[in-house]
Design brief:
By secondary structure, this protein is mostly helical.
């Protein structure tokens, strides 16, 4: 197989994986209960994106010596790097941002409307 054909095949593979990461999770039924419900969609998205990133890294050394495809080969790698940077930024923001930034609550703390009483155990407990 010529290098040009291999480049096109990997480019088509990358495009299919990248589009699949958007389409497949949208039509996938959410599984799990409670907090983890729908997590299978997230893992499917990232699985497709990791495979697409690997295909994008293969494209860079396969790019032609000249022409539009030489510059276009950087687009998949740039999209993979952008996703990685966005995820890193999200993680760092969640780690270092204060959860109360910009929230002010000047209302006074008051006692409950009715006093609470402990529940008496029933017979047989």
């Amino acid at each position: 197989m010529q290098r040009r054909h291999l480049f096109r095949a990997v480019l088509i593979l990358w495009a299919g994986l990248w589009l699949g990461s958007l389409v497949v999770p949208a039509f996938q039924a959410p599984t799990g209960d409670g907090f983890t419900r729908g997590l299978n969609r997230v893992t499917t998205f990232f699985g497709f994106q990791i495979a697409a990133a690997l295909a994008a890294l293969i494209l860079v050394p396969l790019r032609p010596a000249s022409g539009w495809a030489r510059r276009a080969a950087w687009i998949p790698a740039a999209l993979a790097a952008l996703l990685a940077l966005l995820m890193l930024g999200l993680i760092l923001n969640a780690e270092y941002a204060s959860p109360l930034d910009g929230i002010t609550d000047d209302r006074p703390v008051t006692a409950p409307a009715t006093p609470t009483m402990p529940v008496k155990p029933t017979v047989g407990d």
